[in-house]
Amino acid sequence: MASGDDSPIFEDDESPPYSLEKMTDLVAVWEVALSDGVHKIEFEHGTTSGKRVVYVNGKEVIRKEWMFKLVGKETFCVGTAKTKATINIDAVSGFAYEYTLEINGKSLKKYMENRSKTTNTWVLHLDNEDFRVVLEKDTMDVWCNGKKMETAGEFVDDGTETHFSIGNHDCYIKAVSSGKRKEGIIHSLIVDNREIPEISC
């Protein structure tokens, strides 16, 4: 470069695989567990350029350049069910900003607390593959690795069973009363006649 040569910094005139600007403007990352999977939300906020960029699972969903108002909101959808998400940008002091994520109008923390009451989640390993099974208790919809499963409900002596298959494996979610008002109904996932432990989201 000392010779005054104006050749590019990168061989073959290629740009780097990532942008240094992106790395410096990334201000927040959240992971949101929905029925169709865990989604990674990333937010870039260029406070000098006015840039706002939102990525969901690495895919750009919003890009705004030269926003002169540095505070505000960005609203977008996440997941198969198009769940509404909003990033709030608030000034804290001087040039410091706070970024909060809302899902369906609730803070992420409140949403996840509520979600743990309305869903059950199990993670299992079958045929050298990981599976994440989610039961939505209000609709009795069953999701596996992001896909809504076809199910068949059946009444049994001590409750109900919701049957479905993962590959060649017979699965069902058994719902039985706990006998206690505060605990309500207990849901268990049975795969090939073996109970799978539930995870907490």
Automatic annotation (TrEMBL):
PANTHER family in the cross-refs: FAS APOPTOTIC INHIBITORY MOLECULE 1, FAS APOPTOTIC INHIBITORY MOLECULE FAIM
Role summary: Plays a role as an inducible effector molecule that mediates Fas resistance produced by surface Ig engagement in B cells.
Main location: cytoplasm
Record family assignment: Belongs to the FAIM1 family.
Protein name: Fas apoptotic inhibitory molecule 1
Gene coding for it: FAIM
GO cellular component, one term: cytoplasm
Gene Ontology biological process terms from the UniProt entry: apoptotic process; negative regulation of extrinsic apoptotic signaling pathway via death domain receptors
Keywords on record: Apoptosis, Cytoplasm
Subcellular location: Cytoplasm
InterPro entries, per database record: FAIM1, FAIM1_dom_sf
